Amino acid sequence: MSNAPHGGILKDLVARDQPIHDQLLQEVSTLESIVLTDRQLCDLELIISGGFSPLESFLNEKDYNSVVENLRLADGTLWSMPINLDVSQEDIDRLSLKPAQRVALRDPRNDSPIAVLTIQDIYRPDKVKEAKLVFGDDDLAHPAVKYLHQSVKEFYVGGTLQAVQAPVHYDYVAYRNTPAEIRAYFQKLNWTRVVAFQTRNPMHRAHRELTVRAARSRQANVLINPVVGLTKPGDIDHFTRVRVYEAIIRRYPTGMAALSLLPLAMRMAGPREALWHAIIRKNHGCSHFIIGRDHAGPGKNSAGKDFYGPYDAQYLVEKYKDELDIEVVPFQQVTYLPDSDEYVPSDEVPVGAKTLDISGTELRRRLRSGAHIPEWFSYPEVVALLRQSHPPRSKQGFAVFLTGYHASKKEHIARALQVSLNQQGGRSISLLLGETIRGKLSSELGFSKRERDININRLGFVAAELTKAGAGVIVAPIAPYEQARQQARQEVEKTGGFFLVHVATPLEQCIAWDRDGVYERAQKGQITGFTGIDDPYEAPKNAELVVDPSTESVAQIVRRIILLLDQQGYFGDV
């Protein structure tokens, strides 16, 4: 028999409300609607499926305060993570939100109704308090604290939920199991002892070895239960990871392991998150849960120190083990011994034995450069999948973003660079000049700061899409504002390289080179809001290159840019 759900009853709202499904579906067309964020959608999916049992809704104020302060719901049940539906004052005013009102909660991907919420209360949380107590620090270096302060809206809404339907997924549907479905699977196979392994990263040989060891030592089976909702920014996409899991599951002994995906929005909250994860796996029927070193840790704080101690997560879960009723399996670090071609726990390595290891940083370097990844570290089929999704830099796209005053010769540099890169070969090269984009994509925009920022955001989006496809992109707007340039960088760097080149031609020289007389008209007041005359240019703080066409030739500048790209590995195989 599977482990009992947390609180004793699996709160499967979809099954509970199935008899009134048609009635709810008819009602939602008459209700005001809240379109959920991606995090809210992940949370709601796990609430209505029973994954967050004993929760049956987003937390009201009483439960929220109790969870933040005491790691318990108001009724005393152990629960470590506040699960909130956040709304803005604008939302409250626009929808006239108030207690006892019923509102539809809609999927942001297709606008389908997922649930109906009957509002109990609307309250303003103390975000600083939440950050300090839940995440241990009010430090924006923590991704969840940054999200709390910069993305979460100012009010929370509590209430009761009725499920209309589960969110529809189109990817890896066979692996997306609700708690009730995975429990039925365990029962069908007579799996009474199951070790759950959570991961947000690709799995390699060491992961396979440690999960097999954990299962054998507990006479149990293994549930590979990776997170495919929201993970840490910068993580490998879940499409690649699931292909890796599909490949590695075949390396387990027949009948030992199963794969099931978890649509969780992680908070990277370390100890509290580990406790939360254990509860979720208990709700899925697992009897054991592997907790590793620095489980769900976000990395370094703004002072360069780890947010959490390496074993804080294990200590907190151990503290509540009697209430959890799920056995924690400490993550055993394993090390490869080349002489015997095996992985063994680090504390069992014979004195003087030769060991080998590849760190995550080294693995990323080898993927980036195309260097060899040995079979003792990862299976060939796993490496092939990773190389498909993360090709070496010589096959990745990049964007060269030239910024400077009007008539600074950045357009000359851009055109010359495009010709040189086309001669280099290996990838298509696109040229996005400021006036071209203004005419093709932003013809309705003026030159206020807001409109300039919109224009650069559009440029960043187009450059990112081209970069994603492996192209080289040369962008040459004025782009006078630092924040807009940073946003463009962030957009492009999701999929490729970004190189900011400050064309630092002195303003006096730009005026002298201006054959169109635009500066002269601006100085006479015939044009307003002109960069360098009555509108500021914020010089870049983090440019990869600073060039000055008044002191060096265009050919020299182009050569410097190409050398930079080559140094970063973008021409390695050309």
Automatic annotation (TrEMBL):
<feature type="binding site">
    <location>
        <begin position="435"/>
        <end position="438"/>
    </location>
    <ligand>
        <name>3'-phosphoadenylyl sulfate</name>
    </ligand>
</feature>
<dbReference type="Pfam" id="PF01583">
    <property type="entry name" value="APS_kinase"/>
</dbReference>
<keyword id="KW-0198">Cysteine biosynthesis</keyword>
<feature type="site" description="Transition state stabilizer">
    <location>
        <position position="207"/>
    </location>
</feature>
<feature type="active site">
    <location>
        <position position="200"/>
    </location>
</feature>
<dbReference type="InterPro" id="IPR025980">
    <property type="entry name" value="ATP-Sase_PUA-like_dom"/>
</dbReference>
<dbReference type="GO" id="GO:0009086">
    <property type="term" value="P:methionine biosynthetic process"/>
</dbReference>
<dbReference type="InterPro" id="IPR024951">
    <property type="entry name" value="Sulfurylase_cat_dom"/>
</dbReference>
<dbReference type="Pfam" id="PF01747">
    <property type="entry name" value="ATP-sulfurylase"/>
</dbReference>
<dbReference type="Pfam" id="PF14306">
    <property type="entry name" value="PUA_2"/>
</dbReference>
<dbReference type="InterPro" id="IPR015947">
    <property type="entry name" value="PUA-like_sf"/>
</dbReference>
<feature type="active site">
    <location>
        <position position="199"/>
    </location>
</feature>
<comment type="subunit">
    <text>Homohexamer. Dimer of trimers.</text>
</comment>
<keyword id="KW-0547">Nucleotide-binding</keyword>
<feature type="domain" description="ATP-sulfurylase PUA-like">
    <location>
        <begin position="4"/>
        <end position="165"/>
    </location>
</feature>
<feature type="domain" description="Sulphate adenylyltransferase catalytic">
    <location>
        <begin position="174"/>
        <end position="388"/>
    </location>
</feature>
<comment type="pathway">
    <text>Sulfur metabolism; hydrogen sulfide biosynthesis; sulfite from sulfate: step 1/3.</text>
</comment>
<keyword id="KW-0963">Cytoplasm</keyword>
<feature type="domain" description="APS kinase">
    <location>
        <begin position="396"/>
        <end position="548"/>
    </location>
</feature>
<feature type="binding site">
    <location>
        <position position="200"/>
    </location>
    <ligand>
        <name>sulfate</name>
    </ligand>
</feature>
<dbReference type="GO" id="GO:0005737">
    <property type="term" value="C:cytoplasm"/>
</dbReference>
<feature type="region of interest" description="N-terminal">
    <location>
        <begin position="1"/>
        <end position="170"/>
    </location>
</feature>
<feature type="binding site">
    <location>
        <begin position="292"/>
        <end position="295"/>
    </location>
    <ligand>
        <name>ATP</name>
    </ligand>
</feature>
<feature type="active site">
    <location>
        <position position="201"/>
    </location>
</feature>
<dbReference type="InterPro" id="IPR002891">
    <property type="entry name" value="APS"/>
</dbReference>
<feature type="binding site">
    <location>
        <position position="334"/>
    </location>
    <ligand>
        <name>ATP</name>
    </ligand>
</feature>
<comment type="similarity">
    <text>In the N-terminal section; belongs to the sulfate adenylyltransferase family.</text>
</comment>
<keyword id="KW-0028">Amino-acid biosynthesis</keyword>
<dbReference type="InterPro" id="IPR050512">
    <property type="entry name" value="Sulf_AdTrans/APS_kinase"/>
</dbReference>
<dbReference type="GO" id="GO:0004020">
    <property type="term" value="F:adenylylsulfate kinase activity"/>
</dbReference>
<keyword id="KW-0548">Nucleotidyltransferase</keyword>
<comment type="similarity">
    <text>In the C-terminal section; belongs to the APS kinase family.</text>
</comment>
<dbReference type="GO" id="GO:0010134">
    <property type="term" value="P:sulfate assimilation via adenylyl sulfate reduction"/>
</dbReference>
<dbReference type="InterPro" id="IPR027535">
    <property type="entry name" value="Sulf_adenylyltr_euk"/>
</dbReference>
<dbReference type="InterPro" id="IPR027417">
    <property type="entry name" value="P-loop_NTPase"/>
</dbReference>
<dbReference type="InterPro" id="IPR014729">
    <property type="entry name" value="Rossmann-like_a/b/a_fold"/>
</dbReference>
<feature type="region of interest" description="Allosteric regulation domain; adenylyl-sulfate kinase-like">
    <location>
        <begin position="396"/>
        <end position="574"/>
    </location>
</feature>
<dbReference type="GO" id="GO:0070814">
    <property type="term" value="P:hydrogen sulfide biosynthetic process"/>
</dbReference>
<keyword id="KW-0067">ATP-binding</keyword>
<feature type="site" description="Transition state stabilizer">
    <location>
        <position position="204"/>
    </location>
</feature>
<feature type="binding site">
    <location>
        <begin position="198"/>
        <end position="201"/>
    </location>
    <ligand>
        <name>ATP</name>
    </ligand>
</feature>
<keyword id="KW-0021">Allosteric enzyme</keyword>
